[in-house]
Design brief:
There is one protein chain. The protein is an all-alpha fold. The protein has one domain. The protein is 74% helix and 0% strand.
Length: 255
């Protein structure tokens, strides 16, 4: 992957990670169109989450300090939520991730597959608007972690927005939009870290300088944009964008 392609991929990650339209699906599709095979494109798209992971850590540093050294029941409940969601995410997402990296030909029509997943993401956004449940306070529990963690595990599939599906699940559990967005990004940190360690230690990820450039750009752009987009996504309906992009992806593959 050349430096220019890497820089564009990092820029896309730094912007689209905060929007419920699947940064992984869009970047995978972009990389495939620029010559990467599907498996490599997915791996690179996943790796770029390391950059935005550090942006999340920087933005939510006070909350993360509370997780490292819980001072009250709320901090402990949040810690249990993160631990349980991480466990179930890995349990469900791990096998899917390994399957995506196998030699299976089920995803040979890459753009059609990603397009369908983007349509699913768009549909979830439409459904999400119809829920206005509110939970008293902002207390999390074990069931919240297991249910929302399961949805996060599914987001390893390119085209399914991690933030979109987890926020959708959190709204179904009764959390308000502000706290749902916050929880969604906090719960992303451990799974992104574990996935990146797996790539580096067990899989021997074919790292080169361009990936580092892309991740650094994703971090700096992400750090600059996270605050704005966390406010922006609460006011804008991205379902139409997902659906249009999904249809365009399918049509481009067919014709």
């Amino acid at each position: 992957m050349n430096i220019i392609i890497a820089a564009i991929a990092g820029l896309l990650q730094g912007i689209f990670e905060w929007i419920p339209i699947s940064s992984q699906g869009i970047i995978s599709m972009f990389l495939v169109l620029t010559g990467q095979d599907f498996s490599s494109a997915v791996n690179i798209a996943l790796f770029l989450h390391v950059g935005t992971m550090f942006a999340v850590i920087s933005f939510f540093k006070d909350d993360i300090k509370g997780l490292v050294k819980p001072k009250n029941t709320k901090d402990l409940n949040l810690l249990y939520f993160i631990l349980s969601s991480t466990f179930i995410s890995l349990l469900i997402g791990g096998p899917i991730y390994l399957f995506l990296n196998s030699d299976s030909t089920i995803f040979s029509s890459v753009n059609v597959f990603i397009g369908i997943m983007l349509l699913v993401t768009g549909a979830l956004q439409i459904i999400r608007k119809n829920f206005s449940l509110r939970k008293m306070g902002s207390e999390t529990n074990l069931n919240d972690g297991l249910i929302v963690g399961a949805s996060q595990g599914l987001s390893v599939i390119p085209g399914i927005s991690r933030s979109g599906i987890t926020v959708f699940s959190l709204l179904l559990r009764g959390f308000n939009a502000d706290y749902a967005l916050k929880l969604s990004f906090l719960m992303s940190v451990p799974v992104v870290f574990i996935e990146s360690m797996y790539e580096a230690v067990f899989k021997g990820f074919g790292f080169d300088l361009s990936y580092l450039v892309a991740a650094l750009i994703a971090f700096f752009v992400g750090k600059l944009t996270i605050g704005f987009f966390l406010k922006f996504v609460k006011k804008v309906d991205f379902s139409a964008f997902c659906i249009i992009l999904g249809f365009l992806s399918i049509v481009s593959a067919i014709f």
